[in-house]
Amino acid sequence: MFPKLSLDGLTVLDAIERKGSFAAAAAELHRVPSALTYTMARLEEDLGARLFDRSGRRAALTPAGRELVEQGRGLLSLTGELERRVQQVAHGWEVELRIAIDITLTAEALLPLIAEFDGAQSGTRIRLSYEVLGGTWEAVQTGRADLAIGAGGEPLSQAGYSVRRMNPIPFLFAVAPGHPLAAEPEPLAPAQIQKYRAIAVADTSRSQPARSTGLLLGQETLTMPDLAAKVAAQRAGLGVGYLPEPIARDEHDAGRLVIRHVAEPRLESFQYLAWKTANKGKALAWFVERLDAAACGALVRRKVV
User: Which residue(s) pair with 162 in the sheet?
Assistant: First the structure.
């Protein structure tokens, strides 16, 4: 059974209701009034329902006509959006660009770049998400994200991926002022640290083995859902751990944590931008071009709430 509604009929009905008369609607649509009269008569016939009450001097919508115009506007809006999306894709712009950001960076710092992107009027939706450790790489590998910012550890080595190195983020070891390690002589040896519980952030990998960094073999671990929760746990003295240098120094300056020197500090690791080489979308290319060293450096998280 073929649909009895037509987009042309809904467009005409919408114009008549908004403009208040067939003549005004015809002028807006650049058509003659008789053409609109025919379209509405055909629509009423196809639906088997009266859309206009013609008993008065001016045709007025019946309840059925009112329902059709209100619901029909939603269909017209969706159709218009679909047309724009099709044209957008045809011109090389993605319908949606998904960006995965490592938890050591902050999505809020991307807002000025997104505002600039809006000026391109591409119509591409932007979706941001946080990932941790291996989850940032995995997001690109599995298609959860089109672009990863701040993926740490060893870069993807297989073909099909483009990788650009970002500046490294140093990490510092920090403990609560009342924690036993806050009073022990420096540098702290691994054997001293291993006695106390470490606070970690959960790797967001879904299909790959979870990674961990800064942990000692056999060390008890409390795993938190995000970086803010990790910092809160360390403030509470529930454990110890490494934090990105800007955050560690902010916590130290505020007196909430104490930075301690260790005999075997966590090695400085680079972070990377990563995307699939086969992705030729214009939105991806736009962001990759602008995410230079300075732009990426501005994303580094400086503090937590």
Answer: 275
Measured CA to CA, the distance from residue 199 to residue 240 in angstroms comes to: 6
Q: What's the fold here for domain 171-260?
A: D-Maltodextrin-Binding Protein; domain 2 (3.40.190)
CATH architecture designation of domain 7-90: Orthogonal Bundle (1.10)
What is the pLDDT at residue 84? 64
Please tell me the class of the 96-168+270-297 domain: alpha beta
Question: CA 26, CA 11: separation in Å to the nearest integer?
Answer: 11
Q: What is the mean pLDDT of each run of 10 residues along the chain (305 residues)?
A: 75 87 87 90 88 79 89 82 66 85 92 92 89 88 90 76 88 95 93 93 77 77 92 96 94 96 82 89 93 88 86
Under 8 Å between Cβ of 251 and 235: yes
CB-side neighbour CA atoms (13 Å) of 108: 4
Domain boundaries, the chain: 7-90, 96-168+270-297, 171-260
At 268, list the tokens: 């400085």
Task: With CA atoms as reference, report the closest residue to 103 among 166, 58, 148.
Answer: 148
Check: CB of residue 117 under 8 Å from CB of residue 259.
no
pTM: 0.71
SS3 230: helix
Whether the CB-CB separation of 175 and 234 falls below 8 Å is answered with yes
